[in-house]
Amino acid sequence: MGFKRIRQGQKAIIINRNGEITKIDGPKITYLVLSKLEKLNRFVANENQYLVVKYIDGHIEHVKGPCCIWKNRFEHEVIQVKESYRLDESQILVVYDRDQKTNEVTRRLVPGPVIFVPKSSEWIHQFSWHAEDPVNQGHLIPDLNKFEILNIKPDFFHYHVKEVRTLDDSLITVKMMVTYEIRDINLMLEKTQDPISDFINGICADVIGMISKLSFHEFLLQSSTKLNNLDVFEQLKQRSQRSGVIIKSIIYNGYTSSEALQTMQDNSIEQRTRMRINAEIEKQKNDLKNLRLESEQKRCKLESDLEKLKLNFEQKCSDMKLKFDLENEAIKNDYKIKLNELEEAAEYEIEVKNLKINEDYLESLKNLNVDLNKYQNELNKSKFKCEKLYEIV
To answer: β-pairing, 11-15 with 36-39?
Structure first.
């Protein structure tokens, strides 16, 4: 007995002494007499969730969010909040549906992008595949990878084929990486539960079959060529094609061997490396000597060319000087000849003019009735003499 308060946003039920149930929404204050009040728990789902509601009569209902349901123990057995399946464009869900009337089960694929909420009659396929050991790369553990959303974009895994015996009884572990892509999901679901397991069997068969025909030395020489070639892995290709999965590439990541064999191999590698380094050192020394000789030859050639250029220059200078001197001497001679010719011409002209003057003088004396013979005699007696006297008639 007494007053009971139900707050705003809450719900409750009241059970009286007769077992009758009354639902109450808050806010409210009620007085109880020989009755019991029970507050209800609220279950909320947002737009990316849904509610799984199991009723006491056994049927199940899936309610897509956003929604809210108050759990009543007289109506609901269990209410669960679950996340919706959010798929991108490279993801697919495999969904099974059971017909309530015929009890027939059908399968369908739900591709992304989508936010998917299964119906109460539907369930999602659970995949269980081999997966890589997180602490031991290359070791695959069965059923470690459990998932519902299937990725159809290319993926890869590492696998180490252990204890492979060569033709000369050497035990080695071969490290491989396989890239694959799912092409036919229905075929894969029909033919295999774990395609990774099929790949492992195919890789082991192909690697063991190939390496068993080779000695350890031949394996070292041919491994990088053969084990990177997808055509060599016939068993792997056949198994993948039967299961609807395409092998895109296979990559050889090296090998490991026993400690004794590895020590021998390391010593052999060390010796080969030392020999190669020594050979490279000798080659570098020889190259250095050849370079020095070539440099010395080039230097001598340059000095010789320089000396030739110097001699040629001096010879050209000497030739040019001689040519200049000869030309200068010829010019001087020509000048002297021309000067002499000019002097002779001048002297001749002076003499001609003097004779002309003398003739004109005598002619003037004659015109003055001067006795020229007498004048000549007088002139001969004086200090002035006329070298030649012309008789004028």
So the answer is: antiparallel
Q: What does the block give as tokens for 220? A: 């070292």
SS3 (DSSP) at 355: helix
Q: Give the whole-angstrom CA distance, residue 345 versus residue 236.
A: 124
- In this structure, the number of other CB atoms found within 10 A of the CB of residue 118 comes to 19
- Rounded CA-CA distance 191/199 in Å is 13
CA 157 to chain centre: 24
How far out from the chain centre does Cα 15 lie? 75
- On whether the CB atoms of residues 194 and 239 are closer than 8 A, the answer is no
DSSP 8-state assignment for residue 193: S
Name the one residue in this structure whose structure tokens are 């209800």: 40
Read off the pTM: 0.60
pLDDT in tens, 151-165: 999 999 999 999 888
Whether 207 contacts 164, CB under 8 Å: yes
Provide the 8-state DSSP code for 214. Answer: S
